[in-house]
Design brief:
Strand order of the largest sheet: 6-2-1-7-8-10-9
Oligomer: single chain
Largest sheet: 7 strands, mixed
Distance between the termini: 53 Å
CATH architecture of the largest domain: 3-Layer(aba) Sandwich
CATH topology of the largest domain: Rossmann fold
Number of helices: 22
């Protein structure tokens, strides 16, 4: 692959391979996942033509090697492929009758302010056609102000739309008077081009948006135009797209499709003719309606979905199980069919494993995902990598005796995941504070964390300076998972991070992770501090427990102690942090806006146990001020 195209062509053995039916099928699936568009067999030559140059540019001879590269480098190549493969046929005032109807509606209903969305704006012709129509209405109607949003999946055409410069042949069907009034004619190097007027365009915005996989827009549009686009999608996908558009269309608002397009009427729509639909006012804005959240289980086990369904039904009207996929092939179909609000995902499955499925497909869907797996030692590092890539949370599959505890934790994590934004590890600057080894040896940093803590620690710990006091972390974590967590953090840091062991001495510039399902405390004897790992019962339902650990250090003879509470559910750590504060030790809480769950830090703050709250990005600096 290292040879360039000319070198390959000069090789007598070189012969560019034709696109086989098998490789075409792989490309169909890849492009469907990437764009949502169904490319049937009639598009064989189109795909062959549009992707051949890209294949050659990357110096691939075989299509199968090229397809494998696309799949394994999806994030890197996705936008280039989208730009190459999507069709962008457009013109000014395309299907003029609809622009006339739009003007009639605006005049009849006496709009003063308007919000419009061109949902597949391509190079901007439709957006600027709308702007001209509305400007023409200003003098003869009550219309005073409008804003237009143009979106598209293709970043290259969006750039053209923002530049608003078009060649002369784009104006073949535009009246000469409109060209003179609304466009500036280019000269010299710009001869043969026209630019849309640059004055007062703050009311027009362009942005990238994926119709099928993108977030719903929580705006109440008066008009949404999605013309000559739905024909490229399969029926179920068309329905999902329209459903998302209706979420953003106010009651009484209008949806314009292409003249050759039609959709099956729902209770929300009435058909007005000429592929124009009106959303009924009685239903109100979709953003105010609440229904059950749809949960999809991806797991080859037949038991787990039954457990999940039982828990959801006992919860009442909040959630419903809409599907159970036994493998990732079924999962892909069900995600398109049901558009779930949340997914639970097993790791070990027949065929494609859950982590590979998430990395190659699911992470691009913006659907909150909880790993529901055995979480044994072999899976620990896999889950941590998935968390770094955007998985919302993880939970261990239940045993019979643990069902009630599992139910409470599972339902809480569903609620939190549906409200929380995706997390990914971002690099923070390493602190340059210098700490003497004497202070480091005789001090301690004590950290407690729960939900969201694995990601918070992955960002915080690498900011630690070269020399720092021994640091003990109590992270609520499953049995057999803490070792993998410590190993993962150790790869991110330049110093030692390890799972704590019973009887080991505390050393400076080392981070100790408490083992799962055990309690940890610090003991001092004859001026020596060491770790004790024991089987004491859970405290605040947790083993390890932050309160248990904080209690063990409050009467020890450390020169300086900094206690930190990071993101997490519940109140663990708050009570004993207050005792540490009373003894004069520094106490820090993570700020609400930087928490995944503002539970433990809030509980500590409510008890007035926190000296200061800071964001995660400022946490390292605040910790090490104490040791100067």
């Amino acid at each position: 692959m290292g040879k360039n195209l000319m070198e390959l062509k000069s090789n007598s053995a070189y012969k560019d391979e034709e696109l086989s039916n098998e490789d075409f099928a792989d490309l169909q699936q890849f492009l469907r996942e990437l764009t949502g568009i169904a490319f049937d067999k009639s598009k064989f030559q189109l795909i062959n033509t549009r992707l051949w140059a890209h294949k050659q540019k990357l110096s691939f001879v075989k299509w199968c090697d090229y397809v494998a590269y696309l799949k394994s480098h999806r994030q890197l190549v996705s936008q280039d492929i989208i730009n190459l493969i999507t069709t962008n046929k457009t013109e000014f005032f395309r299907e003029k009758i609809q622009f006339s109807i739009l003007q009639d509606i605006i005049a009849r209903e006496k709009y003063e302010n308007l919000l419009l969305w061109s949902a597949a704006c391509s190079k901007g012709h439709e957006v600027y056609s709308l702007d001209i129509c509305l400007d023409k209405l200003r003098s003869s109607t009550s219309l005073k102000k409008w804003n237009i949003l143009g979106t598209d999946i293709n970043s290259a055409v969006l750039q053209i739309a923002e530049n608003a410069i078009y060649p002369l042949h784009d104006f073949d069907s535009v009246e000469e008077s409109l060209i003179k009034e609304y466009f500036l004619k280019g000269s010299d190097d710009n001869e043969g081009f026209y630019k849309y007027r640059t004055k007062n365009l703050d009311h027009i915005k362009f942005r990238h948006h994926h119709l099928l996989h993108g977030d719903r827009l929580d705006l109440n549009f008066d008009f949404i135009l999605l013309r000559n686009v739905l024909i490229y999608f399969e029926e179920l996908d068309r329905l999902h797209i329209v459903k998302k558009l209706l979420h953003s269309l106010k009651g009484g608002g209008y949806l314009f499709l292409g003249l050759s397009e039609a959709i099956e009427l729902s209770e929300e729509l009435e058909y007005l003719g000429n592929s124009i639909y009106r959303k009924k006012k009685s239903n109100g804005p979709a953003s105010t309606r609440k229904g059950k959240k749809k949960i999809l289980v991806i797991d080859d086990s037949s038991i787990i979905p039954k457990i999940v369904e039982k828990m959801l039904s006992e919860e009442g009207e909040s959630y419903e199980l809409v599907g159970h996929a036994k493998n990732t092939i079924e999962a892909r179909k069900m995600i398109f069919e049901y558009v779930p609000d949340l997914i639970t995902l097993d790791i070990q499955m027949p065929g494609e494993n859950g982590d590979e499925f998430y990395r190659q497909f699911l992470k691009y869907k913006s659907i909150p995902t909880i790993v529901l797996s055995s979480l044994d030692k072999d899976e620990g590092d896999v889950v941590l990598k998935m968390l770094e890539e955007g998985v919302s949370d993880y939970i261990q599959k239940p045993k019979n005796a643990e069902f009630s505890l599992f139910k409470n934790e599972f339902l809480a994590k569903i609620a939190i995941s549906l409200e929380s934004k995706q997390q990914r590890v971002s690099l923070l600057r390493r602190e340059s504070i210098e700490i003497s080894e004497k202070i480091a040896r005789n001090s301690l940093i004590a950290i407690g964390a729960s939900t969201g803590g694995t990601m918070a620690l992955a960002q915080l710990l690498p900011t630690f300076p070269e020399v720092f006091p021994p640091t003990v972390v109590i992270q609520h974590i499953p049995r057999d998972f803490s070792f993998a967590f410590a190993e993962r953090l150790n790869t991110l840091c330049t110093f030692k991070v390890k799972e704590a062991e019973n009887g080991e001495l505390l050393e400076h510039s080392t981070v100790y992770i408490a083992p799962g399902n055990k309690q940890l405390r610090i003991i001092q004897e004859k001026g020596v501090s060491y770790i004790e790992i024991n089987n004491d019962p859970p405290l605040n339902r947790h083993s390890p427990s932050v309160d248990y650990f904080f209690n063990s250090i409050k009467n020890l003879s450390f020169q300086k102690v900094v206690a930190v509470i990071l993101t997490g559910m519940g109140r663990d750590g708050a009570k004993e942090m207050l005792e540490l504060k009373k003894l004069g030790h520094k106490t820090i809480g993570q700020s609400e806006e930087s928490c995944v769950v503002y539970g433990m830090p809030k509980a500590a703050k409510d008890l007035e146990a926190v000296d200061i709250e800071v964001s995660l990005s400022q946490m390292g600096r605040e910790i090490f001020k104490t040791f100067r």
